[in-house]
Design goal:
heterodimer, A: 276 residues, mainly alpha, three-stranded antiparallel sheet, 3 strands, B: mainly alpha, Helix Hairpins, 69% helix
């Protein structure tokens, strides 16, 4: 089996390397990929959409239909993770584990108590390894608001600097995952509930498709943001810029919620009670 | 030997991606553990992403963000040769996020498989499937 695999790998690699002789040179300005449609995007982006970042204008305007379905793929992946893993029955072993804050004594309970003990006396912890991590918890508590602010900046400033909905959405999702890693999954779930993650990823896709459908209703083509100019009370070029912003917000919401949804289900094997 | 040096200097970027891609392909075919196969899939995806981004590179070009003072309503026109090709960046931007999403689904499937078979080794899973 290994010999066959090695033969396949060497054969495919040799074929690919022999094919690179016909490829354009590294950094060649006259390579075929640089001559076909990209000069049009580079030269007309500013004129047609007033967005200096060509990557954003191509992503959300010229190829907006493509990006809409990329967002749908991300949403579908989140739903698939949820449907594969989520389960309601409790995990085997001790049902609840608490640590007495003053003495450090750990209490295991086989059933969930009728009334939760006071959280300032008994802290609920995961049933596996849970160290006292004061520094990690507090550093992350201070950092997470700034990470989220930076994520919002990356989404909103994607027109003028590298950034946009996908990148900002991943930063926002990572901030919630950092909270789950440094505190615990329950704290992160309190901040961003399971229903919220599901709803937000669906709403993100809905915003994207909704902006496209609104353009259709205004008499333009699907995702032709210039048709939104009468609603937004700006000229068609500025309407394109604003339309790109709206769909980027939708992408950011969908990506953030999907990242959190996938992480929660993977880390807790679908029980959402405790995890990494 | 002499004639191969310019060939190497202009094409070695592709060879790096092909080497990475073959590492990923090897892991996907030959490794027995399912998580290692997923790692191989990710190395393969990374190789393709690097390949696309390198296609967009141009000597003398800067990042595809129009500099202030040129373009719409300004004197200086935008020249395509001054900016690298934005199209591969757009395609790979979405591909990176989609690869994270597919990684999530793949790991979810692996957890499901581990729940049923209590192992992630491919041969042991196949043996269990044959017995049942």
């Amino acid at each position: 089996m290994k010999a066959l695999a090695l033969a396949i790998v060497v054969l495919v690699g040799g074929l690919l390397i022999s094919a690179t002789v016909d490829f354009p040179d590294w950094g060649d300005p006259a390579s075929p990929a640089a001559l076909h449609v990209s000069p049009r995007y580079i030269e007309k982006s500013m004129e047609e959409t007033s967005v200096p970042n060509i990557v954003t204008s191509v992503l959300a305007d010229y190829r907006g239909f493509d990006t809409m379905f990329e967002t749908t793929v991300v949403f579908t992946a989140g739903v698939a993770c949820f449907l594969l893993l989520r389960r309601r029955e409790p995990r085997p072993g001790p049902s609840r584990v608490y640590r007495h804050r003053a003495s450090g004594v750990i209490v295991e309970m086989s059933q969930a108590p009728d009334t939760e003990p006071a959280p300032e006396v008994f802290k609920r912890i995961d049933d596996d390894w849970t160290p006292h991590d004061l520094i990690v918890m507090n550093v992350c508590r201070l950092l997470i608001p700034f990470i989220q602010l930076f994520g919002l900046y990356v989404i909103a400033h994607g027109h003028h600097s590298p950034g946009g909905g996908f990148q900002g959405g991943v930063i926002l999702g990572a901030s919630v995952i950092l909270l789950a890693l440094s505190w615990d999954l329950r704290t992160a779930s309190l901040r961003m509930k399971e229903v919220a993650t599901g709803l937000m990823s669906a709403i993100g896709v809905f915003i994207y498709a909704g902006v496209g459908a609104l353009a259709l209703a205004m008499g333009g083509n699907f995702l032709d943001y210039a048709a939104l100019a009468p609603i937004l009370r700006v000229d068609p070029v500025a309407a394109r810029s604003l339309g790109i912003f709206f769909v980027e917000v939708g992408v950011g919401l969908a990506v953030m919620a999907t990242m959190v949804l996938i992480y929660k289900n993977l880390a807790s094997e679908g029980r959402l009670d405790q995890g990494l | 030997m002499e004639q191969y040096i310019p060939l190497f200097l202009t094409k070695y970027n592709y060879w790096v991606y092909i080497a990475l891609m073959m590492i990923g392909l090897w892991a996907m075919i030959a490794k027995n553990n399912l998580v290692k196969k997923i790692v191989g899939m990710n190395i393969f995806q990374t190789a393709i992403i690097l390949f696309y981004v390198s296609i967009g590179a141009k000597y003398g070009g800067t990042i595809p963000i129009i500099q202030h003072g040129s373009g719409h309503g300004h004197e200086a026109a935008v020249r395509a040769a001054d900016y690298i090709n934005p199209l591969p960046h757009v395609l790979m931007l979405t591909a990176i996020v989609v690869s994270v999403a597919t990684l999530g689904v793949a790991l979810a499937l692996v957890i499901k498989i581990h729940r049923r078979h209590r192992t992630l080794e491919e041969d042991e899973i196949l043996e269990q499937l044959r017995e049942s």
